[in-house]
Amino acid sequence: MFSFWRNLGLTRAAAVFFSIPRQALGQCSSRTGGCLIPNRESSGSRYNVPPSAEFVARVSGISTMAKLPYRETADGLDAAFIGVPIDTGTSNRPGARFGPRQIRAESALLRAYNSGTRAAPYESLMVADIGDVNVNLYDLKDTCKRITEAYRKILATGCIPLTLGGDHTIAYPILQAVAEKHGPVGLVHVDAHADTSDVVLGERIGHGTPFRRCVEEGLLDCQRVVQIGLRGSGYSADSYEWSRAQGFRVVQVEECWFKSLSPLMSEVRAQMGVGPVYLSFDIDALDPGFAPGTGTPEIAGLTPIQGVEIIRGCRGLNLVGCDLVEVSPPYDTTGNTALTGANLLFEMLCVLPKMKYY
Ligand SMILES: [Mn+2]
Hints:
This is Agmatinase (putative). With about 350 residues, this protein is α/β, with parallel strands linked by helices. The chain is about 30% helix and about 15% strand.
């Protein structure tokens, strides 16, 4: 029956009228030939539409982000999920190199619509998974070069990258490519840590230093930077002095406890204005009770609800790129940290420019 209506080329409105589940449209039903790969031709949509679990078992198929098609390049895409599998920049627990794979695996639970915001990402944007940057696990500086080169190519196509980390080192080479295209960008940085250290163990590149390097190279519009969720013991009494001296707004976690972050986000939207903004979300911003699978956990963190409020609060901003970093599967015994990461990445997709909301 579904394929009958689909072949008639029914519009969404007509489908609703006939009470056909919306996600039934555009899917290869197992009853109509066992097609497991989503494709636009069969869906009649001009966008990539992941297969619905109503017709294709979640556990089947090759693991891509949100069960989207895999593409070799970003050509023709409005947004792309891309993995950067490194943990050679970590200072404590390793494992984030496995983050992209585990996030993809857990992302099989994602569905096509955002029930909370009514966003319809796969009716709004052409999205695909473009695989991973081929990193150099033996040379972090070479890895950074490879990342910048890869993102330069992605950004040249006009595609917005949604990155699956990987440790937080990757934000620096990504922002090099982003600033090359857009100029200095605003930054919404959600994290337990400021990641603005200068030199650690004699090295300037690592997951504790990316935003110091970004400032030094003029990649950030420092008056349009906010750091949310910072906490933990420090090396001095005022750990965030350097951030504030640059002009960043620092929102320590104590300011977030016991409250909705929606009011904060309306201030952040005013701070960001209409210029380009990059969103960098370290999963360790969340309390380790919710997201234990990470490299440098700190107690008394944000809740997943607050994480979602922050991302939904970015709706309307001129987002030019997003990342979700520091998921470390070896410390994620239930997979729930990766699952949370997958959902936060979906929320990021759902606030990109040109998103359609019902
Ligand atoms: Mn971080």
